[in-house]
């Protein structure tokens, strides 16, 4: 039995979901062998999932999205680091009731990446999602040595709104260690930077952006990408990152980003986490669906070999689940290994045929036990144990 579920956002962490499911199963079948492998898709909870899988937790003080210091963590095992941008720049780092769509910065996320480099990381899985920011990764790049200046030669204000004042950009001073690491951009979204499906239009309203703010952010990020076309490239990483590929202008020192800046702006994942994906692509990151990356990092394949039944899940099994969320990734991998999969969730909006196409035989929502949604959120743990008891009766007895 393998429990590989994501968090129930706002109620239970992925670790707690595994604990509650295990408790419910063992209440019906006391001797059942259960392997817990909490999972995440690159968003908030990614570091916790890595720590649960045996990575060491490292805490550092970095800038939060509004500049105030916060304690953030990354995970490290050997020379592989898992860095979660939401640890530094996520919505949960904003003061209660405060949203800052125009001014929130990813500077702290860049500081987290630098801390991972300081710790000796040679491979960095950069999980992005749950951000408070829409700055195209400019703050992150600034923390790593880039310069973004206005017409007077002064640093532009933080946040996506400040990029409207951008007159020049220079990436030649980026931390040279970036050229020697494998940087993997792990995300569950493939949006471009701007446009109707871009970061401001699709995700800006979730961060408090009004329609006017969305237009301003889209224009600012479009301007940002245009300025970057003429920006001096990183001395080492600017020639294409760790792969060493040269850009159209020849690569190496003295080169500008050129067409690469425009190409990255429309690449899948550029719009992830308010455009921090774009900043990561500029320094040579390779985009991969977050759940695929995390299953590799967490050792899912080895755990799957020993399992006869896989229990996955997340807070809401809905249409978004089918597009790169953790349960869909777990189910796809399990189906390829001819393992049976069931899911637990807070609420369920997918019909059985959609679940079947995703490789999930059956879903067990908390609302099937307790119809009141507020009660399910408040008492998710005990209700989930009752759900797990039903799974045990259906599949283990």
Automatic annotation (TrEMBL):
<keyword id="KW-0418">Kinase</keyword>
<dbReference type="InterPro" id="IPR036129">
    <property type="entry name" value="Glycerate_kinase_sf"/>
</dbReference>
<dbReference type="GO" id="GO:0031388">
    <property type="term" value="P:organic acid phosphorylation"/>
</dbReference>
<feature type="region of interest" description="Disordered">
    <location>
        <begin position="231"/>
        <end position="252"/>
    </location>
</feature>
<dbReference type="InterPro" id="IPR018197">
    <property type="entry name" value="Glycerate_kinase_RE-like"/>
</dbReference>
<dbReference type="GO" id="GO:0008887">
    <property type="term" value="F:glycerate kinase activity"/>
</dbReference>
<dbReference type="Pfam" id="PF02595">
    <property type="entry name" value="Gly_kinase"/>
</dbReference>
<keyword id="KW-0808">Transferase</keyword>
<dbReference type="InterPro" id="IPR018193">
    <property type="entry name" value="Glyc_kinase_flavodox-like_fold"/>
</dbReference>
<dbReference type="InterPro" id="IPR004381">
    <property type="entry name" value="Glycerate_kinase"/>
</dbReference>
<comment type="similarity">
    <text>Belongs to the glycerate kinase type-1 family.</text>
</comment>
<protein>
    <submittedName>
        <fullName>Glycerate kinase</fullName>
        <ecNumber>2.7.1.31</ecNumber>
    </submittedName>
</protein>
<feature type="compositionally biased region" description="Gly residues">
    <location>
        <begin position="233"/>
        <end position="252"/>
    </location>
</feature>
